[in-house]
Amino acid sequence: MRNEYDAVVVGGGHNGLVAAAYLARAGLRTVVCEARPVVGGAAVTEQPFGPDFKLTSLSYVVSLLPPAIVRELQLPRHGYHVYPQGPYFAPHPDGRFLQLPADPTRRREQVARFSPQDAAALDRWDAWFAELVPVLAPLLEEIPPRLGSRHPADLVAQARLLRHLRGLDTRRAVEATRLFTMSIADLLEDFFTSDAVMGALSVSGVIGTWAGPRSAGTAYVLAHHHIGDLGDGKVGAWGFPRGGMGAVSQAMAAAARSFGAEVRTAAPVERITTRAGAATGVVLAGGEELSADVVVTTAHPQISFLRLLDRAELPADFVADIERWRSRSGTVKINLALDRLPEFTARPGFDPEVHGGTIVLAESMNGIEQAYQDAVGGRASAKPFADICIPSVFDDSLAPAGKHVMSLFTQWVPHEWASRPDRGELDAYADRVLARVEQVAPGFTDSVLHRQVIGPYEMEHEYHLIGGNIFHGELSAAQVFHARPAAGYADLRTPVRGLYQAGSATHGGGGVTGIPGRNVVRQVLHDRQRDQRRRRLRAPLTRSPASDG
Predict the structure, then answer these.
(1) What distances in angstroms separate CA 195 from CA 116, 118, 365, one per listed residue?
(2) Cα(first)–Cα(last) distance of the chain, in Å?
(3) 156 Cβ contact partners less than 8 Å away, ≥ 6 residues apart
(4) Are 362 and 199 in contact (CB under 8 A)?
(5) Helix H segments across 397-480?
(6) Residue 240 pairs with which residues in a beta bridge?
(7) What angle in degrees, to the nearest 10, is found between the helix axes of 365-376 and 195-206?
(8) Residue 340, Cβ neighbours under 10 Å: how many?
(9) Which residue, 7, 48, 82, 303, shows the most beta carbons closer than 10 Å to its own?
(10) What is the Cα–Cα distance from 60 to 38, expressed in whole angstroms?
(11) Span 2-44+67-81+242-324+475-535: which CATH code?
């Protein structure tokens, strides 16, 4: 059986759905093929405890989704709604706490309780980011040029990049270099002295990464996570989508369908088909063939290029780049159903800024580094850090009245656990995480009704995140911008004509951004228009009857 389309999208995660929506919006007959029974990939809402509780299994907050995508795909019309997230709240076992509200005056007051010197440094820290963000933030939405290429079109793209960077004067150019290459520890120590302040701030430099705060390149990871915009112009804003992250994916799927795309679930792609160096479609696991001269893959690059394609179809250097693409992770996601909100010794009672913010278990940067070094040494962290959210504080659709769901994003366990799971050790690790919450919120463990623990093995084998890496590849200096994911192919094209890539391992990915999905359609449409022009130029001239005789 063979079905014909203009475009096939491999993978129904958020990037695949965004790509499908824009392709269909442009008039292409488009189909999305998702292996799992539900769309969303890592941005999915599930009910492992039964119908009463809805959990965002993996990805759990919105930050980097551009307002233009929300507007152009009319996502609010399809149920998209985001509740702004509250500030950081870092409770300590000794009863102290650090809160980092958006208001500068209140933030200085909070930090001054730990270090007057650090409170004074906050303005310098904010100013440092404020100088770099206007130049660097737009780069997240750019398609990287082929740096080093001498092709005229590539030289034009390189010139555009240089014009974009003209906002960097001599000093800012050096600071941008520092941001991309420094460790978050070195950067923070240039500004702050307090363990509490550096502990809370360093979490964003290592979240989702196989790197500790003293690892080079983690300063960029912090910047990547803080270039967010919910549409209100607040850089670094985060929010909880109503219905969990799965509701974001469902809104994208509905948008794609509204433009005419077909979205198929439980439809795993077994092979991407080619002929004479060009994509011709895909074959599904059941043998069904879908033909199309455009195929967009959003799967991890090692799945796309080393499993779905014959390596002989690809240049050897490209294959080598993909083979050494690093996707290590030591992340463990813990999801809980609670019969009540935790009450923190440091801030008794309900506080929407506390319970509706990000609760960080990270008393010091050195403690986070030690947690990483434990995992590097082959042991699950003795004292893991955790990034905790309780979205049901805002969203009553997630839990029954008076009850709540809690998301704990934690690190680290050995990255080898992606292929060699140890359920007993994983559960013991989760016990340690919950014990840390109990230290700052006595009675917490008694409030836990249900628990779900998702380690690197489950992330790889159930959600197709190779290595358990939530970004489809580490956000290290060696794997960003024009190096993401292979030399010469960061522009979302591939060595196979008509085959494009738009997963989180491409530039603009890493978080629920939708940027690769949107940008890949720009490339597809550009190439189709170019090919149409070439065909017209090659068509033989036809003489009119009046010219005969």
Answers:
(1) 13, 10, 6
(2) 52
(3) none
(4) yes
(5) 423-440, 456-463
(6) 83
(7) 40
(8) 13
(9) 7
(10) 17
(11) 3.50.50.60
Strands 385-389 and 404-411: antiparallel
The tokens for 157 are 């793209």
Instruction: Determine if residue 394 is left, alpha or beta; phi over 0 gives left, psi from -120 to 50 gives alpha, anything else beta.
Output: alpha
pLDDT of amino acid 228: 52
Are 325 and 473 spatial neighbours (Cβ–Cβ below 8 Å)? yes
d(CA 61, CA 84): 10
CA 225/CA 205 separation, integer angstroms: 8
pLDDT in tens, 477-515: 889 889 999 999 999 999 999 999 999 999 998 888 999
Share of the chain above pLDDT 90, in %: 77
Name which of 472, 163, 126 is nearest 299 in CA terms. 472
* Per-residue model confidence as pLDDT tens digits over 173-191: 888 888 888 999 999 999 9
Question: pLDDT tens digits, residue range 425-474?
Answer: 999 999 999 999 999 999 999 999 999 999 999 999 999 999 999 999 99
Structure tokens at 122: 């906050």
Put simply, whether the predicted model's pTM sits higher than 0.90 gets the answer yes
Whole-angstrom distance, CA of residue 136 vs CA of residue 519: 17
Contacts of 312 (CB under 8 A, 6+ apart): none
With a CB cutoff of 8 Å and minimum separation 6, the contacts of 474 are: 209, 210, 211, 326, 327, 328
Domain ranges of the chain: 2-44+67-81+242-324+475-535, 87-237+328-463
Least confident of 16-20, 232-236, 289-293, 348-352: 232-236
Cα–chain center distance at 363: 26
**CA–CA distance, 35 with 308 (Å, rounded to integer):** 13
Per-position DSSP letters for 439-461, written without gaps between them: HHSTTTGGGEEEEEEE-HHHHHH
Written as one string, the DSSP assignment of 218-271 is HHHHHHHHT----SSS-TT--EEETT-HHHHHHHHHHHHHHTT-EEESS--EEE
* Per-residue model confidence (pLDDT) at position 534: 84
Beta strand 294-297 with 385-389 is unpaired
- DSSP 3-state assignment of 155? helix
Residue 224 dihedral angles phi and psi, to the nearest 5°: -55, -40
Q: Token pair of 501, please?
A: 């890539």
As a whole number of angstroms, the distance between CA 99 and CA 351 comes to 12
Q: Report pLDDT digits (tens) over 112-150.
A: 999 999 999 999 998 888 888 777 778 888 898 888 888
Taking residue 184's Cβ as centre, other Cβ atoms within 10 Å add up to: 29
